[in-house]
Amino acid sequence: MNGLRNKLWQVSASFGTACVLLIFLFLLTLFGTLEQTEHGLYEVQKKYFESWFLIHEMGPVSVPLPGGMLCMGLLAWNLLAGGLIRIRKSKSTLGIIVAHVGIMIMLAAGLVKLAASDDGYLRLYEGEQSDEYISYFLWEVAVFDADSKGEVAEFLVSDEQLRLAADEPVRITHKLLPFELELKHFLENARPTREETPFALAGGWRLLERAMEPEAEGNLAGLYATVRSIAGEETAILWGLSEDPWVVEMDERRWAVVLRHRRLRMPFGIRLDDFTKLEHPGTDIPSEFSSDVTQLGSEGDRAVLIRMNEPLRDGGLVLFQSSWGPPNAKPGEPLFSVFSVVRNPSDHWPLYSCIVIGLGLLLTFSEKLRRYVTAQSLLRNSEVKS
Fold first, then answer.
1. CB neighbours (10 Å) of residue 328?
2. According to DSSP H, which parts of the chain are helical?
3. Cα–Cα distance between 132 and 139 in angstroms, integer?
4. Domain count within the chain
5. Which candidate, 218, 212, 262, 220, places its Cα nearest to that of 237?
6. Are the CB atoms for 100 and 360 separated by under 8 Å?
C-alpha cells in the first residue's frame, strides 16, 4: 500500500505529469476556441473550462477529455507538490520556488473568480443614475406591493430556486406574503404562444420552449406561476421580456410578480453626465466612445472618465465602457451608454502573480549569471597562472 502511495505521489508531482496537463489545457483552449464559431462564449466556457469531464465531437468521433476544472486542479497540486514541497531547498532554487508561488497565485485568482464573481451590465441615459447592475445570465422572480411609492421592498426568488422548478414545482411561503407562490416548468429560453391545447391557460396562452441561443444573454426565460391562498388561486405565465409585471389582488392589496434578470447592488452609485461618441471622418462608424460619470459614494462624489481600456475600478467592481445606443438614433436624440460590470474579488491578483513570477525569474537568472561570471573568472585566472 505504501509503495502504491509513493508511486502516486511521484507521478502526481513529476515534470512529465505537468507536461501532459499543459497539453490537455492546450487542446481544451484549441477546441473551445473552434467551438465558439457555432456556440456562444458562455456555453463554451461552461463546457470546456468549468467542467470536470467533457465529450468533444470531432465529426463522427466522440473524444472524451478532462475538463478545465480537473486539469487546473491537478496542475495546482503538481505545482504545489513538485515545485514547492519536493524541490531541493537551496539558494540556487530560491528563484524557482518564488516563480512557482507566483503561478499558484494566478491559479488561485482563477478559482476565486469562478466561485465569487458576477458579470452584468449597467445602461444609463445622460442624467440617469443607479447603484444596481443587471446580470447577463441569472434570473430572479421579484414580488412586491404594486401600490408602493418610492423605494419598494421586494421578496426575491433566486436563480438557483428557479432552475429547480424546471423539474418539479417549487412552493414558496413567507410571513410577509399573504399567499403561497408556486413556480413550475422553468424554461431557459421560451416565448409565450397562443394555442388551444389542454395545457394552455385562460385565453389559450402557454410557453413554447425554444432552442438555446448561441449567446447566453440572448435567451429569454419563462415559467408558470401560481398564487394560492384561502380565497382561491390564480395562474399566469412569467416571461423575461414582459413589459409589465403580473398583478394579483390578495387581502385587499395588489401584489406584483415579475420575472427579470437578477439585480446586483453596487457599493456606490453611478450617474452618467455626458456620453461622447467620435466617428470616423465621412462615416457614421464610431471610432471611440466614452462616458463622463460621477461616482456617488458615502464619502463624497468624484468625476471619472470611463472609456475603452480605461475602466473604473473600485469596491471590488470593474466598470468597462462596452457599447452605446440606440444605434439608429438621429442627431440630437438622447443616447445611452452601456457599461459591462464585473465583480471579481481577485481582480488584481494576476498583477501580483506576474510581479512574483518576474521576481522569481530575476532571482533565477541572476544566480545563473553569477555562477557563469564566477566560472569565467576562475577560468581566466587558471589561464593566467598556466
1. 6
2. 2-12, 15-35, 41-44, 68-80, 94-116, 159-164, 349-385
3. 15
4. 3
5. 220
6. yes
Are 246 and 166 within one domain?
yes
Phi, psi of 251 (to 5 degrees): 50, 45
What one-character-per-residue DSSP string does 128-147 give? -EEEEEEEEEEEEEEEEETT
Strands 336-343, 118-125: parallel, antiparallel or unpaired by DSSP?
Answer: antiparallel
Eight-state DSSP code of residue 221: -
Are the beta carbons of 31 and 47 closer than 8 angstroms? no
Whether residue 53 is contained in a domain is answered as yes
HSE, side-chain direction, 13 A CA sphere, residue 102:
19
Please tell me the number of Cα atoms within 13 Å of 189 on its side-chain side.
11
What is the per-residue DSSP string for 190-201? EEEEE---TT--
pLDDT, mean of each 10-residue run, the chain (386 residues): 77 87 93 81 83 88 90 90 83 88 90 86 92 92 86 88 92 89 93 70 78 80 91 89 88 89 93 84 72 89 89 88 81 85 88 94 88 84 75
Domain containing residue 352 = 2-116+348-385
- Within-domain flag for 124: no
CA distance 363 to 148: 65
Phi/psi for 160 (5° steps) reads: -60, -40
Residue whose entry in the numeric block shows the C-alpha cell 429547480: 164
3-state class percentages of the chain: helix first, strand second, coil last, to nearest 5: 35, 40, 25
Reading the block at residue 167, the C-alpha cell is 423539474
Give me the amino acid identity at 183. Answer: L
Before 326, cis peptide (omega within 30)?
yes
Q: Is residue 23 assigned to a domain?
A: yes
Question: Do residues 161 and 208 share a domain?
Answer: yes
- The DSSP bridge pattern shows strands 222-229 and 205-209 to be unpaired
Nearest to 115 by CA among 146, 82, 72: 72
Report pLDDT for 37.
74
Cell numbers for 370, please give them.
Answer: 553569477
Q: pTM above 0.70?
A: yes
